Amino acid sequence: MSPTVCPDGASQGATSEGHFAAEAPVLRVAALRTEFATAAGIVPVVDGVDFALARGEVLGIVGESGSGKSVTAYSILGLVEPPGRVTGGRVLLGDIDLLALPPEALAAIRGARVSMVFQDPMMSLNPVLRVDTQIIEALRAHGSIGRHDAHARAADALARVGIAAPEERLRSYPHELSGGMRQRVCIAIAMLHQPEVIIADEPTTALDVTIQAQILSEMQALCASSGTALLWITHDLSVVASFADRVCVMYAGRIVESGPVDVVIGAPRHPYTRGLLDSVPALAAGGRRLAPIPGMPLAPADLDAGCAFRHRCARASERCALAPDETFPAPGRTLRCHHPLDRAADRDS
Amino acid sequence: MSPPILEAHALEKRFAVRRHRDPRARRSAATSVLALDGVTLHVDAHEIVGVVGESGCGKSTLARIVCGLSTASGGSVRYRGEDVGSLDKAKRLRYTLAVQMVFQNPFAALNPRHRVSRIVGEALMVHGLVPAKEHEACVVDQLARVGLPADSRDRYPHQFSGGQRQRIGIARALAVNPEVLVCDEVVSALDVSIQAQILNLLLDLRASLGLGSMFISHDLGVIRYLCDRIAVMYLGRIVEEAPARTFFSQPAHPYAVALLAELPAPVAGKRRFEPIRGEIPSPIDPPAGCHFHPRCPHAFDRCRVEQPVLREIAPGHRAACHLHDRP
Fold this sequence. Notes:
Largest sheet of chain B: 8 strands, mixed
Low-confidence stretches of chain A: 1-21, 345-349
CATH class of the largest domain in chain A: Alpha Beta
CATH class of chain B: Alpha Beta
Oligomer: heterodimer
Helix content of chain B: 25-40%
Structural class of chain A: alpha/beta
Largest sheet of chain A: 7 strands, mixed
CATH architecture of chain B: 3-Layer(aba) Sandwich
Largest interface: A-B, 58 and 45 residues
CATH topology of the largest domain in chain A: Rossmann fold
Shape of chain B: globular
Strand content of chain B: 15-25%
Number of strands of chain A: 11
Distance between the termini of chain B: 29 Å
Strand content of chain A: 15-25%
Order of helices and strands of chain B: EHEEHEEHEHHHEHEHEEHHHEE
Shape of chain A: globular
Strand order of the largest sheet of chain A: 6-7-8-3-9-10-11
Low-confidence stretches of chain B: none
CATH superfamily of the largest domain in chain A: P-loop containing nucleotide triphosphate hydrolases
Mean pLDDT of chain B: 88
Radius of gyration of chain A: 21 Å
Number of helices of chain B: 11
Order of helices and strands of chain A: HEEEHEEHEHHHHHEHEHEEHHE
């Protein structure tokens, strides 16, 4: 169980803020801006993203394809490749600005203090190297360690992520493992150096539901016991609801709403969040028809200065041609909308 | 009672194992995999039957066989009560047109070099279903049915988003006036807001055309929203089949219970996962007895040796589990 669990699930304001208010955040992202050069000109894909991550906290970033959620993650670790470029903002790990670091210094942090788990473990593991080679390589990248010690730590790392018979698995190649097993190996590698932050980019999307549940429960336990903060990027609102402490909802490169997960999901203020929730079939049981968001997101190149969601939004007015500023409707909550939903609006109304 | 439109009867499918290719096979003496093991399921008009299961359970194989894209190794596919293997040419054509498939990946299922008018209209032309001069109008009608503008017909698949491409795939299937749509994971590649649009479209089509559907998905939330009857597959066998209401309120098979328990729901406050242990065993070497017993919290001695048969435990509710075997 994560340290910020609110046992009865009731929405009593900023549940997670209370616990962490005293501590400085481990990771703070401020006004992050990442642009891609395209045939249509320079296109901002991440446009002024701010959030902070406290020790041991699970922060979910939810968005649909093209919302900029993965590019946000890549920007934090300096993994954006041309034609993309991080053009503004700060990423503070403690008091170090990761964006200002030279590549070698960033490489020393990547994998040691901040590590990443990718969506497709078949792509992130090397198919021609055995699992033990890959784990030990990651161990040696951040400090020298003897052969026997390295082997023991590798086996220990696999055991910690719930892999049975770790000694045998160490001698396997990635293709000999199932998808869930491969993702566990990636998580084991990410946890090797007890990082302060793990960034997970849709790590369970490619997995079956029973395996997804296993991985979620193991990640929850691992982060709770080690105090590692987790940035969990996903398109799946239901995973965030049952797993994260706080959630940021992204649309077209901006965070449109954020706050404690119970509050955002229980009483969303942004019409886009509301629309996302109304599109989830699991909530529509009981014969109610889904109320999908009409239309589809604009291509980043077609965005203008106004609210990017206004073309699909039933509440949009002329004011929405000007981008809404970020407001703070409650402690720990942010919102970007000229016409937010009423606080008391019930989901059934 | 008239026979159902489409029925799979005791369907079996065996795939040969290429031993040198598959590392899992090297350790086993098996030379083939039983991807479908006695699957019986039917679809009536106006009915959406959900087939749910994890990767490798045989649900896509089932879809391909009932559509005629693949042949069964045993058992039969029946169209209006007749085995499709013994149909004469005219009836065979009627079956082929009556059962249409919509595919999972809307990027791979449409020929990138063809315009939408050809993708949707090709079957009409080949089978001479409409006179040549009405052809264009018919294509536009199909596009309108799935909510695409008429000018889409002159465009190519790459000019559409994923959700729109899936609509084109549905329009293509509808063009020949089918009686049953077989949908294989048609929404799993789409974003939630687009997914909801397609699900509503499928419900509308049933209401307006009276289509029956076999809807294959790994997503129980989607299945719950759409389906009237649900079959759960595990390693090539149907382990439970029930009307949707019964299934979601009283699942009988431990695997179905586990799947439902793990359905993450966007309900604030649900913070505990109680995953079932282990992974799906390799279908090359399935466990003896009940295939689910190594992961089942209720397994007892009999489960390890005797394969449970699918039997009716309540009207319309079938389950294959020894726990429900009491007389």
